[in-house]
Automatic annotation (TrEMBL):
This is SH3b domain-containing protein. Keywords: Signal. Residues 32-87 form the SH3b domain. Transmembrane segments: none annotated.
Amino acid sequence: MKKLILSAIVAATAMTASAASATQAWIGNNHLNARSGPGVQYHKLGVFKPCTPVHVVKFTRDYYGNPTWYKVYFNHNYYWVKADYVQGHACHWTPKKQHWGHKKQHWGQKNHYYNY
């Protein structure tokens, strides 16, 4: 009976830990590429705007144990982002204003930023 109760407690703890394993984080103060895997060799799926809230669900480590890439959950999808550009606190970002007539405009360029 004790083994059965202990097994049930261990199973419940494991399920709780996996459900609560996502950690709230925010993209830093710059735009950040969202990739299909943990490295620059993987396809770029889009770009996160600065200060976008995400949930970190997994990460890779370097030789010294430091996180290098985060697998993040956002808007019902998973993406990989460079860990150096993710922060553990909220921030506020305001896009720069366009100054029409002061700079040469590049018409026809596509906007590759996802509206997260």
